[in-house]
Design a protein that fits this description.
159 residues; alpha+beta; 5-stranded antiparallel sheet; 3-stranded antiparallel sheet; 3 helices; 8 strands; 28% strand; globular; binds nickel (II) ion
């Protein structure tokens, strides 16, 4: 495995709509492994391929430690409820925003074996599904945040 460089805001990669994966090649499997390593090294709970400069519809999520969800060509197939909470992004270090997301989200995707899988998540996992899938369409959370935290609020949060 190898740790990859995380692209930061300002890079066009983060604003590009990613293409679906057509075939799960050894390169895709390697990318999944490298993305998980990169996410863990950066202390993140989710990472999308465009964040490491790859314009493909691939996401890894680890909200529950040790349980990595690998999503290839993911789609949200159901959602319900509403949940406002803090959101950050490894591509926007030091920033936080308040974002309304559904409380429950179900995604359908392919796993690394090419099988169709479905996951339903609530709260943080639901938020993660929405945030990471947005990345695949070139969207970043400040686009949908109803408010970004001020420097003072971030200071308080750290304190
Ligand atoms: Ni992000």
């Amino acid at each position: 495995m190898a740790k990859l460089k995380i692209v930061k805001i300002g890079d066009d990669t983060l604003r590009t709509v990613c293409r679906p994966v057509e075939k799960i090649t050894p390169r895709v499997l390697q990318l999944l492994d490298d993305m998980t390593e990169t996410m863990r090294a950066a202390d993140g709970v989710g990472l999308a391929a465009p964040q490491v400069g790859i314009l493909r519809r691939i996401v890894v999520i680890e909200v529950e430690e040790g349980n990595v969800l690998e999503l290839i060509n993911p789609k949200i197939i159901a959602f319900s409820g509403e949940n406002e909470g803090l959101e950050g992004c490894l591509s926007l270090p030091g920033q936080w925003g308040l974002v309304k997301r559904p409380m429950h989200v179900t995604v359908r995707a392919l796993n690394r074996y090419g099988e169709t899988v479905e996951y339903t998540g609530s709260d943080l996992l639901a938020r993660c599904f929405c945030h990471e899938l947005d990345h695949l369409d070139g969207k970043l959370y400040p686009d949908v945040a109803h408010r970004m935290l001020t420097a003072e609020e971030i200071e308080e949060l750290r304190g």
